[in-house]
Each structure stands twice: as C-alpha cells, then as structure tokens.
C-alpha cells in the first residue's frame, strides 16, 4: 500500500513505517508513550522494562531508515527512559546534537516524589556534519540582550539563535511570573500590553527564575483548561514548541513524520508552517479527531499559544519599579516601540500566510499542469478542477478564485518560468472564427454590466466563468467551455496589435443597410469580409471580421440564434462587405471599423478601440 503525504494513517507505527521507502522523511518528531501507566485510548502504557526498550529500538530503527541523510529526529521522553533511549538511538546510528530539558508549569503531581514538571527533548541527526538547521532564517532568531535590554548599537542586527530556555505563556492562564525578591502590589503591575499575554515571554525578564546557562526550555504544558487543548488527547505538546523545532530543522515543503500522531499537534503545526506531513496512530478515535483538526486549519495559520519573541520585540517590563503618579500615567499605554513591533508582528503573520500560500499554489500547479501554461490551467475546466482539488488537499487558505488569481499573478511575475510548459494549446484561428464573436460579445457584456473588471477576473472565478460560458453558448451553441474561454484569450492577445495596425488603415465603405429579418446569410460569398450590426442608423451594436462571411453569418444569425439576438435588441440592421482582410492581419480591419465611429459599437471588445 502506497502512503501519501498530508494524511494520518491508522495502525502500528512500525508496520506503517515499513511501508515507506528509505530516505523519504525530512524531519521526524516522536512523543511516544513513556511507559508510566498513562491511560491511553487503546494502548497499554505499562510493559516490562526490557520489552519497552526493545520496542523503542524497533520503531527508532524504522525512523532512521526512512529519514533522509540530512534529516533530523526529535524525541520527547520522560525521566524514566531518557538515558536508555538516547543510548539506543546512538547505537542505531543517530548523533545527538542537543539534549534539551523542556520545563513546563502545571506539573504532574506524583506520590512521594517531587512534582513532574519537565520532559527531555533529544535532537538527533543521521549525519553529524550535513544536516538541516536553519540558523540564519530570521524567523528562527531573536534579539540579543545587548540589543533588547541595553539598546547597544554594537548588537548584531540579525539577532541571535534563542537560548535553550524557551518561554511561552500558556493559553487561558491568569497571572504574571515575577522574581521572588521583586516588590509587588496591584498598583505596580502594568496591564498586559498584549491582550493575549498573561505570562512573561523572555528569559531576561526572568533573571531571578532562570539562569541563561541552563539547558531548560520553558513551555507551559497544555493543560485541560487552555484554549489550545485539542480536547481529545491528554498528552498534547504546545504548538509553539513544535513550531520552533519544525521551523529550524525543516524547509517549507519538506515532509514531517510523527509516528505517534495522538492529538495531531505535530501535523497541525507542520501544515500551518507549509510543510507536508505524515502521521501514524494506533487509535481509530484519535485518527478521526486528528483528521478533523487538520481539516479545520489552513497553511499559514498562526500557531496556537503565545508567539515567540520577534527579532524586533522589546523587553516587557522592569523589576523593582516605584509607583509615581507620572509613572502610573505612562504605564497605562504600551510604549511606542512595543506598538511598532506589534504592528511588525502582524505584518509578518500576513507575509507568512501569503508566502506559504504562494508556495502551495506553485506546488499545485506543478502537480496538475500536465505541461500546459498557467493560462490553460485556469481556462480549462478539467485542468482547473484538478488544480483546485490539489490546493484544497494542500490545505491552502482561500477558494478557487483566490488560487486562480494567485496563479496568474505568479505567472505574470515570472515565478513559474522554471516550470516546464512545453505543451501548447493548439486551437487554429480558423476554428476560433466560428465562435470568436460569441466570446467577444459575452466578454464585453460582462464588463459593461460590471460583473467583472477583466477577462482574468472572469476566468479566475468559477461562477463568473460559468456565466461567460452560458452567454457565449447562447450566441454560438455547441462548443466546449474551453473553446469560448480560449477564444477570449486569443482576442485579448491580438487586440492591441490589431488596434495599432488599424491606425494606418482607411475605413472601408460597407454595403447597404438592411433589416436582419430580410437578410439571407446563405447567399453571402464564402470569403473573408466585414459586417456591421446596428440598432438604427446612429447606434452601432457590433462590428465583425470573419474568414468566411457565409459560414460566420449563418452560424451567427441562424433561426435559433436570432432569438438570442432579439433579446439584445428589438431591431437589428446589417451591412456586409466582402474583402481580403489577410494582408492587414488578424482583426485589424475589425478594429478599423470599430474606431470609425464616435462611440464604440457596444458589443465589441473595448481594447479594439482604445486602451
């Protein structure tokens, strides 16, 4: 059975990983059962010591096999087996880069021992020299104390890598952490400068609580009262903790594996950060809930929990402040720098959402374009449905109109130039001649009715594209939607050149004007020529150019089509002029005729007259 990315599979992780090819995974994060008797849904978390070690070695060996040579493996484990699993992982072939202690508040109460308030996080790599660690990415760097606290101009403008003490407040917690020797009274506390902040965010604000040399990461455990809690799994990692690991040890588009999906937090964070993901879970109920959680989020969404400090973020407060009337007034509003950095944070969220969505659009195009151009993918209902479905599968924010519009913008910005689009959409001009008029009229009517501002807007919006197809089919029935849409694209492409050539042409004198009901299309010569439709002698409707007057006018004004024209105008007059139009180029004489009149014939595409 082939395993596909962006899914959770039910089953034993060892058996599932055996179905994966070697070297498929970029980053693996595992938070396995700790073998301490926790009450899982279907798993018995209390087995004999040797059995647990052997089982752990088996699944860790599978992780090693499926991991790419430059990949990383993070293991979360409790005190009881931390040393044993570190040694087992190294015996299998992993190299340990960091042994991090994750310290959390709301520790688990224990009988006759100190409260459990930490877990171990091991960062393993296969190759001790060549491995993914994005230390230069600004999203993985924070301001130094020199810059943040002391405002020292010698500080590195790019900031630094964070300490291995991570401070993230829990969702829905109340209160502030202060040093034990700090002076405290309700009057001395500023209101939170961030409506979501209830805990101190930075190590330098906790100088009395932590030492900067400690290898302790402070991420409050996700307790049952927090909004962040998924609600169906008791051992849930904070999203911000997974966010730091995934951002640092993988690239957008990389494949992240969680062998013990559980609450699907690893997969949710991977999806939000624009990574592909793959999860295995023994419990059918957890799989069901995890899939629902993943379906509710989109690529680029913010991580739950309080964000990590940005490179531009200032210190959050000062210790031992004295209360004064002037100081109390100043503390009622956040400092200007803080407001600026909050604005920068919001802007960065927007940038990340757009950046990851654009990456997803490019990926969807690569998977579905079948060698055709972006124009063809948007205009072709079959290809576009495949493209839209892939965008949905990737979990992108937006809708078909959004994704199609972004694809067009990427194409116009040259961002798709390195994607091979060698297949051409070959629709001969002779074939377009039979229905080009219908596409032109349908397009201009929609523009005049202000249903859309451009052809791109029509094609990008499935609802508008459907209206366009119906309007064109009413005038020239029997063709596929792609025919009408591609003819409109061809018209737009040649319109400006036709208008330029028309500037040097002398407007021709057309034949006599006659009522349409007296006109016999089949009597017209089978040659190229021009024709003009009018409501009366002063109000012009449509100027047309065709490669065959007899065929075009028979198709355009057959018995069924006259009913459609009667809805456009109660009276119709027609003039015809057979002529050789090939020397001037496509639509040049049509544009010449359109430009002849003070007012554009209202059904002609506006680009044929002027920009």
Description:
It is a single chain. By secondary structure, this protein is an alpha/beta fold. It has three domains: 7-295, Vaccinia Virus protein VP39 (Rossmann fold, 3-Layer(aba) Sandwich); 340-412, no CATH class; 434-608, no CATH class. The protein has helices at residues 13-17, 49-66, 82-92, 145-148, 239-249, 265-272, 284-295, 325-330, 336-368, 374-379, 381-393, 400-412, 429-432, 436-448, 455-460, 462-475, 481-502, 549-556, 559-568, 588-596, and strands at 7-10, 25-30, 67-77, 95-108, 116-125, 216-218, 255-258, 276-281, 514-515, 529-534, 540-546, 573-578. The strands form two sheets. The chain has an eight-stranded mixed beta sheet with strand order 1-8-7-2-3-5-4-6, sandwiched between helices. The longest helix is centred in the middle third of the chain and has 33 residues, at 336-368. The relative contact order is 0.08.
What keywords describe this structure?
611 residues; alpha/beta; Rossmann fold; 3 domains; eight-stranded mixed sheet; four-stranded antiparallel sheet; 12 strands; 37% helix
Beta-strand residue percentage: 5-15%
In CATH terms, the superfamily of the largest domain is Vaccinia Virus protein VP39
Q: Low-confidence stretches at least 5 residues in length (pLDDT < 50)? A: 167-215, 312-338
* CATH architect. name of the largest domain: 3-Layer(aba) Sandwich
> What is the β-strand count?
12
Distance separating the two termini: 57 Å
Widest sheet: strand order?
A: 1-8-7-2-3-5-4-6
Coarse structural class: alpha/beta
Report Rg: 34 Å
Mind telling me the CATH class of the largest domain? Answer: Alpha Beta
In CATH, the topology of the largest domain is named Rossmann fold
Helix count from the secondary structure assignment: 20
* Basic shape: elongated
Major β-sheet profile: 8 strands, mixed
């Amino acid at each position: 059975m082939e395993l596909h990315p962006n899914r959770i599979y039910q089953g034993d992780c060892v058996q599932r990983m055996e179905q994966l090819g070697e070297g498929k995974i970029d980053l693996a994060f595992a938070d396995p059962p700790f073998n301490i008797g926790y009450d899982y849904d279907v798993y018995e978390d209390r087995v004999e010591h040797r059995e647990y070690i052997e089982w752990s070695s088996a699944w860790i060996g599978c992780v090693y096999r499926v991991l790419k040579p430059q990949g990383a493996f993070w293991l979360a484990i409790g005190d009881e087996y931390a040393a044993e699993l570190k040694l087992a992982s190294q015996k299998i072939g992993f190299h340990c880069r960091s042994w991090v202690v994750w310290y959390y508040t709301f520790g688990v109460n224990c009988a006759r021992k100190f409260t459990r308030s930490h877990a171990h996080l091991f960062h393993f790599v296969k190759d001790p020299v060549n491995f993914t660690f994005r230390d230069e990415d600004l999203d993985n760097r924070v301001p130094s104390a020199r810059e943040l606290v002391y405002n020292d101009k010698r500080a590195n403008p790019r900031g630094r890598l964070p300490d291995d003490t991570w401070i993230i407040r829990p969702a829905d917690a109340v209160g502030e952490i202060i040093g034990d020797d700090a002076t405290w009274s309700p009057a001395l506390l500023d209101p939170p400068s961030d409506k979501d902040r209830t805990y101190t965010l930075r190590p330098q604000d906790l100088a009395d609580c932590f030492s900067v040399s400690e290898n302790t990461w402070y991420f409050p455990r996700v307790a049952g009262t927090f909004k962040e809690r998924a609600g169906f799994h008791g051992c849930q990692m904070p999203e911000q903790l997974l966010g730091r690991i995934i951002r640092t040890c993988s690239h957008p588009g990389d494949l992240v594996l969680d062998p013990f999906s559980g609450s699907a937090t690893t997969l949710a964070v991977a999806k939000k950060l624009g990574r592909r993901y793959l999860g295995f879970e023994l419990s059918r109920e957890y799989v069901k809930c995890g899939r629902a959680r993943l379906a509710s989020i989109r690529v680029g969404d913010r991580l739950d929990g309080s964000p990590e400090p940005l490179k531009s973020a200032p210190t959050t407060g000062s210790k031992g402040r004295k209360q004064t009337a002037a100081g109390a007034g100043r503390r009622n509003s956040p400092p200007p720098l803080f407001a600026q950095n909050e604005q920068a944070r919001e802007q960065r969220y927007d940038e990340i959402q757009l950046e990851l969505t654009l990456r997803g659009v490019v990926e969807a195009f690569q998977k579905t374009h079948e060698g055709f151009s972006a124009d063809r993918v948007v205009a072709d209902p079959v290809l576009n449905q495949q493209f839209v479905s892939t965008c949905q599968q990737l979990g992108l924010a937006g809708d078909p109109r959004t994704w199609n519009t972004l694809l067009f913008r990427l194409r116009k910005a040259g961002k798709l130039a390195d994607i091979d689009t060698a297949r051409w959409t070959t629709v001969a001009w002779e074939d377009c001649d039979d229905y080009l008029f219908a596409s032109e009229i349908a397009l201009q009517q929609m523009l005049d009715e202000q249903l859309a501002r451009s052809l791109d807007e029509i094609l990008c919006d499935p609802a508008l594209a459907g209206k366009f197809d119906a309007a064109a089919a009413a005038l020239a029935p029997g063709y596929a939607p792609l025919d009408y849409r591609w003819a409109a694209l061809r018209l737009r492409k040649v319109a400006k050149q036709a208008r330029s050539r028309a500037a040097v042409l002398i407007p021709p004198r057309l034949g006599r004007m006659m009522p349409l009901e007296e006109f016999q299309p089949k009597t017209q010569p089978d040659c190229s020529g021009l024709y003009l439709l009018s409501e009366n002698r002063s109000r012009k409707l449509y100027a047309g150019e065709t490669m065959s007057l007899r065929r075009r006018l028979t198709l355009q004004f057959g018995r069924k089509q006259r009913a459609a024209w009667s809805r456009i105008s109660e009276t119709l007059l027609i003039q015809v002029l057979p002529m050789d139009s090939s020397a001037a180029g496509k639509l040049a004489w049509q544009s010449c005729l359109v430009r002849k009149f003070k007012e554009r014939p209202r059904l002609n595409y506006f680009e044929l007259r002027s920009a």
